[in-house]
Design goal:
Metallo-beta-lactamase, Chain A, alpha+beta
Length: 325
């Protein structure tokens, strides 16, 4: 079946090796142990004040590293990656999606890529169920922006809405960009499928969507941050509860080293990279100054940590102390 990207979905990597059979002239055949090719259910919980936050994995996918820094020479980027023991050609992008339980409401921030984006993604629902929730339980959904890995999981394989009882929130500039002709007219050819996918899904929530602006409150202590550039109306989310602060950065940060140590390097997925850099520095400065935690979508699961200043830039510090058995 063809998906929104216009290609037929197929497995890039098998779930396991076929049984290896060796037959010798003087002995019986035997089979090697089959590789499983799976990980444990992808969810992680922690408390922020009285709010229980569950980070749900939507899986991961592989991207070429030539998208990491469009304003830097390729050899500079490759040397930097190699110096940090990273593959210079490809990187794994995780998708870490927060579900906030306030005690009164369940608030999901983004809905993942669903079954029609990329192989390796689309794991949100199974991990949500493993964590004890179902899509029907969700009261509110915040859409940070309308890229496939944040929006296309709005519907199931039969194009039916997955969150029938939820109220939706998205910034006004983001809604207007993807709902009109601007996306088709503005996006480069390689991202035209993003516009087609958004135009299929956004009308489904038109009757239940609230268009937001900077500082608007989603629930008590949960507010919207305007962080445009990656897309025209890209938004982040700030959660304040019990004297603690969590900034859900969405795609202002996309790499565990580059986004922090080189915030001036421009990812190829940013529509307006100069504005996106301003937003990235805004979020990093907020987190470092306030000693806030951040939840970054595309860092290794669960993507939870802090931002420390390092010279004129920053570094990501995983919040290991949050891990509990």
């Amino acid at each position: 079946m063809a998906d929104d990207l216009g290609v037929t979905r197929r497995g890039m990597i098998g779930s396991g090796t076929a049984a290896l059979t060796l037959a010798g002239a003087s002995g019986p055949a035997w089979s090697a142990a089959e590789m499983q090719g799976t990980q444990v259910p992808g969810y992680y919980r922690f408390m922020l004040g009285e709010y229980e936050i569950t980070i749900l994995s939507d899986g991961s996918y592989t991207l070429p590293t030539d998208l990491i820094a469009q304003n830097q020479p390729r050899d500079v980027v490759k040397r930097y990656l190699e110096a940090n023991f990273l593959d210079p050609e490809f990187r794994t992008s995780h998708v870490n999606i927060p579900l906030i339980n306030t005690g009164e409401e369940l608030i999901l921030v983004d809905v993942g890529g669903g079954g029609n984006f990329l192989d390796g993604a689309g794991k949100l629902i199974e991990n949500m169920q493993a964590a004890g929730y179902a899509p029907e339980d969700i009261d509110k959904v915040v859409i940070t922006h309308a890229h496939p890995d944040h929006l296309w999981g709005l519907i199931d394989d039969f194009d039916d809405p997955l969150y029938p009882d939820a109220q939706f929130f998205i910034s006004k500039p983001e809604w207007e960009f993807w709902s009109g002709d601007r996306a088709v007219e503005t996006l480069p050819e390689m991202f035209q499928s993003f516009a087609a996918g958004a135009s299929r899904r956004l009308p489904m929530i038109a009757d239940t969507v609230t268009l937001t602006a900077e500082g608007d409150e989603i629930a008590s202590g949960i507010t919207v941050l305007d962080t445009p550039g990656h897309t025209p109306g890209h938004g982040s989310v700030m959660v304040k509860e019990g004297g603690e602060t969590l900034i859900i950065t969405a795609d202002t940060t996309t790499h565990p080293y580059v986004s922090f140590q080189h915030p001036g390097w421009w990812p190829g997925t940013d529509l307006d990279p100069k504005i996106a850099e301003t937003s990235r520095r805004k979020v990093l400065d907020l987190a470092a100054t306030g000693r806030s935690m951040i939840l970054a979508y595309h860092l290794s699961f669960p993507g939870l940590g802090h931002v420390a200043r390092q010279g004129s830039a920053y570094r990501f510090v995983p919040a290991l102390w949050r891990w509990q058995l």
